[in-house]
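TASK: fixed-backbone design
INPUT:
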């Protein structure tokens, strides 16, 4: 049975324990297009692990998952995937959409070393994409690579440290990020960037104490690699630190208070344009609880203050929130609901993006081999101080059906509908995506 379905959520809910380690794996300022509801099983599995305090994200794969090769003290796990995808609007244009088949290959390799409760892992993930259709002599093909290392150290049940470092060479899909609208159609190939991340956390105390503290820190550096005249002003680095105090008020319920600070720096600003450098201070109050072993949640309400370095940009303060709700009403059903309101870095317009998003994913295990995943995303982006008061409404709905032919072979097919309605001309689009693929392991 797949790990993301039929899982018993053992242990006290500890979503915050993953903290900045999970945040570092996300692309800062990502477009909603980066979210793939059809692939939400991976996110769901991560949250299942995070909620289950007894199961850490670096633990070896479950017996039902990929098999590992023992090489001395290391467990080596190779994986690969092949997918055929058809998209109706590869440039995400409002008019005159171009469709194409896309052929994808996804190699992966991880090496895990475990010493009692301490784990060390090195991982590689790649994705190569080939487009059947290109126009204007475009080159839409790409090859993304990510290398990462994770460490989890348990000095005692009250002293736990985690760390992650990664480097990635990635691309932005046409019509997203810095190539929105007509720019994505004019550029001869996708925009590429390199991104390095490093982060860590330290847990002091446990839920058995009167309270416990979680300290987190991280650094991200992104540098664009082509179309310098367009992209150099968007190179940036981010430094983030936070401290969260948890206080148990019931056997399975903690209240929390959190302070987070982020400094955002753009080293190569465009001339005659106010810099986007800013500091963000966030104060949050919330709770995490486990109503039953199959119903866990974390909720936070925040006050966010964003201060720009230059007077040409307008400071902002307001409310934010975060919600993660994980439910398993029946053994074969798993439901994940998330919601957030927070500022994000802008792409081409405005000072920053006020982003609100709600996602839901339902995974159902029809049998030991057959499963389905229904996902949805509803979001809104408001571009603060944009000259045209830009506002985007985003909708994504997807269905994925999979068949585990063997333990080492998972065949799936899916369909996704993406829509963005913008009040700015040439930024709205619709995209219909059909895919079929296979995931292979040992």
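OUTPUT:
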């Amino acid at each position: 049975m797949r790990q993301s379905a039929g899982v018993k959520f053992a242990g006290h809910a500890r979503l915050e324990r993953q903290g900045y380690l999970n945040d570092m794996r996300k692309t800062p300022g990502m477009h909603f297009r980066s979210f793939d509801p059809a692939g939400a099983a991976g996110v769901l599995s991560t949250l299942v692990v995070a909620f289950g305090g007894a199961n850490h994200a670096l633990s070896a794969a479950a017996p039902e998952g990929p098999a590992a090769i023992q090489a001395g003290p290391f467990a080596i796990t190779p994986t690969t995937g092949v997918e055929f995808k058809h998209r109706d609007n590869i440039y995400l244009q409002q008019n005159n959409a171009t469709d194409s088949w896309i052929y994808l290959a996804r190699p992966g390799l991880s090496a895990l070393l475990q010493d009692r409760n301490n784990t060390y892992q090195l991982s590689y993930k790649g994705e190569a994409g080939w487009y059947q259709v290109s126009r204007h002599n475009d080159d839409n093909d790409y090859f993304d690579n990510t290398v990462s290392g994770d460490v989890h150290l348990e000095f005692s049940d009250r002293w736990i440290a985690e760390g992650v470092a990664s480097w990635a060479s990635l691309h932005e899909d046409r019509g997203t990020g810095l190539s929105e609208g007509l720019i994505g159609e004019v550029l001869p190939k996708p925009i590429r960037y390199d991104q390095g991340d490093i982060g860590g956390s330290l847990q002091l105390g446990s839920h058995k104490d009167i309270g416990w503290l979680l300290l987190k820190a991280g650094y991200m550096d992104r540098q664009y690699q082509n179309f310098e005249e367009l992209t150099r002003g968007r190179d940036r680095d981010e430094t983030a630190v936070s401290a969260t105090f948890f206080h148990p008020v019931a056997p399975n319920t903690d209240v929390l208070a959190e302070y987070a600070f982020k400094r955002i720096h753009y080293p190569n600003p465009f001339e005659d344009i106010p810099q986007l450098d800013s500091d963000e201070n966030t104060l949050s109050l919330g709770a995490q609880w486990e109503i039953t072993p199959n119903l866990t949640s974390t909720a936070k309400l925040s006050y966010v203050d964003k201060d720009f370095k230059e007077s040409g940009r307008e400071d902002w303060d307001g409310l934010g929130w975060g919600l993660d709700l994980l439910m398993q009403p029946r053994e074969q059903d798993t439901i994940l609901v998330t919601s957030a309101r927070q500022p994000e870095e802008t792409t081409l317009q405005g000072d920053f993006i006020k982003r609100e998003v709600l996602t839901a994913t339902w995974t159902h295990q029809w049998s030991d081999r057959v499963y389905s995943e229904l996902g949805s995303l509803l979001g809104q982006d408001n571009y603060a101080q944009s000259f045209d008061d830009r506002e985007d409404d985003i909708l994504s709905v997807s269905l994925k059906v999979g068949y585990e032919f063997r333990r080492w072979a998972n065949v799936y097919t899916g369909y996704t509908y993406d829509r963005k309605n913008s009040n700015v001309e040439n930024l709205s689009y619709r995209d219909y995506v059909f895919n079929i693929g296979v995931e292979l392991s040992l």
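COMMENT: Helices lie at 15-24, 40-51, 183-186, 228-231.
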